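User: quick one
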Amino acid sequence: MITSKMTLSKSSFLLMSGLVLVAGMALPKVSWALTAIEIMEKNFVVGKYPDSTSESTMTLTNKSGQQRVRKTFGTSKLDANGIDNKRMTRFLEPADVKGTVSLLVEHSDKDDDIWIYLPSLKKVRRLISSNKKDSFVGTDFSYGDVIGHKVNEWNHTLTKEEEVEGAPCYVIESIPKDATVKANTGYAKRISWIQKDNFVTVKTIAYDEANELLKEATYKRWKEVEPVKHRWQAGILEAKNLQTGHHTVITIDQSKYNTGVKDEYFTTRYMEQQ
Amino acid sequence: MHVEKMPQTFSALGMSSSGGIFSSLFLAIALVLTVPSLVNASEIDDDLAPPMSLEEATAATSHPLKAQLSQLGVTGSFRTGYWSSNRLYDDVSNVGTASAWLKLEKKLDNGIGLFAEGYSAREDLRSDGNTRSSMREMYIETRQGDFDFRIGRQIIAWGRTDRLNPTDNLTPRDARLMAADIDEDRFGSLAAKASWNLTANDSLTLVLLPEFQANKSYSKYTEVIPTANNQWAIKYDQSGKPIDWSVSYYDGYDISSDFSSTGVYQHYRIKVFGMDIATTVGSNRFALESAYTQTQDMNGTDENIKNPFLYTVFGVEHDFGNNTSGIIQIFNRHVYNYTTASDTGRLHDIFSSQLDRNQDGISIRIAKKWLNETLETELAGSTLLERNGYSLRPRVTYLWSDSIKLLAGYEYYEGNSNTYYGYLKKNNTLFMELRYFY
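Assistant: Done. Structure below.
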């Protein structure tokens, strides 16, 4: 009996081992794909903190080294759904764009709303928002890069793990699920290096619609701005267009988080005030 | 008969049109300088203004003089340009221009905002050239709870369609100004504006205009400017929701004149009932704006006064991607109690866009930004379908650096003498302008 039991146990063990082996052979792709989605979902929410006020400097440098510097004051506030943000940006410098204010209201289930106040027009104007691939105020970041690409619009694959500046990272390849996403974002593929310990993005490279290498972005000086829920914000954001040689550095000079930003910032009333 | 158009005055602020405005602006700056307690840093969370510390940070990284001006809230530009023709309907050609623009924006500690902007321009550098100055705006503003108040000379721009705005009747434009930016021809009237913000998206605005300022354009004929002070307007506006809209009413003098058969420009009272609405769907923005204007000649019997009319503009803007967008608008002016113009009333009807019972037209604008938005190209145009007049305005803007901007373009008008475009032909001009921002 004992032998029999042992034999049964051995058989069971072998059967189980076989199943695990088969599963192990069959599952890696499924398991890695699920893991990639989970990683991207965690990555998506890690930047969703309740609110912020910040002062930033955008330095835009063209291929020949000529620089333009824009200083902004911005606020953001997370919607009750925990996904959508409202973002207001007021340009303080240079003189040519001073007083320009943009208001972006994200909608995860439909197109976002964007308004802009141009001092020369003296009024607020609603803008078309479906296009996420155009440059964000002349920088090398697109509107999609700034808002964040929706996880469920892309197929994600965990391709490997490697270190970036000593930090272990997941390397995720993201392909748009359909032609509309590709056309709206301008990307045929994105590869993201996501830090394993806190799920922040430290580096991305993106390919244009013709699948040519388009840009590389790095995100540094991460700060945990909401320790309870582990929300993070980068202090230096850098993007380089590898096709034109133009690059952008956005530095968060001052910032405050989770202070209860007033709703008035996100109104056309505020935009019109000097 | 051949009398120069009467000069507008800046009587409300006690300033002449050709001098004193910059001294007033500098007075305002001096006021800010001499009351340092009013310009202390504001905290981000205490009000809705950017913190002063950023201006200080900016100051630390900029040119010392520029930094000082920045701290004071002073910016502006020096401009010089070449125009192949002026905007005075004459035969003067090859005009060199130079101007200085000055702007003051300051938020005081007590929440009061100061704003002033003006320019002094030499619009023909030759010895007999035209020199003039203008204070476009100079006001103070504050917010008290749900209410916003703005008092002083101010531009009030209403309407949601593109550049053709039937509801935009409160403050005028100066068509003589040789500025490469089309909206810089706006200038303010003395007004008190109060807005009651009923919700985050809804507001009710009341405007009182104790001073009347008319549109300015060069004319050899006399213009009579009313001195009455009982103009007002009200608007209910909703914005920030999926659809932006407003309804408005204006009761006051018409900023566009009526040309009488006796050769005098007059301004008559009008009542304008307006509305506008705009929304976006996918890659398109739709906008509709309409206004019904009651005039002092409701029966259409006086050829020197406009008939009542309905002016409607509908436009679609499409985003083509790659920083390229296009707008097409159709517009219609329907004249009530229309009668065919007599020979003596013909000019009035041409200048008033009332030569036909229905005046239909199309306007377009195609724009593209290049090189990280340093280069912008634009082609704008409009045409009148019944009379075949049209205008074209290609323009290129290049931002050489944060301080230097180059603008060039061409304004072309074509049409017979039965169209306003026909009269503008003398103003066809190639222009180039260099701006230095400080």
